[in-house]
């Protein structure tokens, strides 16, 4: 968790320096990214909110993910991650958003989407949404920690490209 704190602190420094706010949309990490972010003193200067949307219904109601997207691609898909990130931007005062949706295990995987499959999206105001899928290994907690670290690193990279 020290690594997550260090990444969150670095992210906060970047966001604050540029005057931006962050919103998160989490599924398989269940608020772990928000916990890392809010463990940094002063995070209220740059963190607006987190949507923990574990169920499909929560993704639809809180973030505006379309039923069609969920039915066609599934909750663990870049398409869903992109709609989650866009919804986090639209339902917050943030200029940057990140979403995480995946299969942390130990159950729930399939041949097409094994345990450890995690989809991410990063959105910012007036810019194209980027997304990717990663495959992590380890137990449930290790997959969740790796997912949060990857999401925070992606946000830091996006901020540095402005």
Notable traits:
single chain; Maf protein; five-stranded mixed beta sheet; about 20% strand; globular
How would you describe the overall organization of this protein?
The chain has a 5-stranded mixed β-sheet, with helices on both faces. It contains 6 helices and 5 strands; from the N terminus they run αβαβαααβββα. By secondary structure, the protein is α/β, with parallel strands linked by helices. The chain starts with a helix and ends with a helix. The chain has one domain (2-160): Alpha-Beta Complex (Maf protein), CATH 3.90.950.
How much is the average pLDDT?
97
Helix content: 40-55%
CATH topology: Maf protein
Unreliably modeled segments: none
The value of Rg in angstroms is 14 Å
* Count of individual beta strands: 5
Number of helices: 6
CATH class: Alpha Beta
Task: Kindly name the structural category.
Answer: alpha/beta
N-to-C series of helices and strands: HEHEHHHEEEH
Question: What sort of overall outline do the alpha carbons produce when their principal axes are compared?
Answer: globular
Quaternary state, please?
single chain
CATH architecture: Alpha-Beta Complex
Q: Kindly estimate the percentage of residues that lie in beta strands according to DSSP.
A: 15-25%
């Amino acid at each position: 968790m020290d690594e997550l704190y260090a990444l969150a602190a670095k992210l906060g420094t970047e966001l604050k320096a540029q005057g931006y706010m962050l919103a998160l949309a989490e599924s398989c990490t269940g608020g772990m990214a928000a916990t890392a972010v809010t463990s940094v003193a002063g995070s209220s200067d740059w963190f607006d909110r987190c949507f923990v949307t574990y169920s499909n219904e929560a993704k639809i109601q809180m973030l505006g993910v379309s039923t069609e997207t969920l039915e066609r691609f599934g909750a663990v898909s870049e398409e869903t991650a992109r709609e989650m990130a866009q919804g986090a931007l639209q339902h917050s005062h943030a200029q940057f958003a990140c979403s995480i949706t995946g299969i942390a295990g130990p159950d729930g995987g399939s041949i097409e989407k094994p345990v450890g499959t995690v989809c991410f999206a990063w959105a910012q105001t007036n810019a194209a949404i980027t997304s990717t899928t990663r495959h992590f290994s380890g137990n449930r907690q290790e997959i969740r920690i790796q997912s949060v670290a990857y999401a925070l690193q992606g946000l830091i990279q996006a901020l540095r490209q402005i």
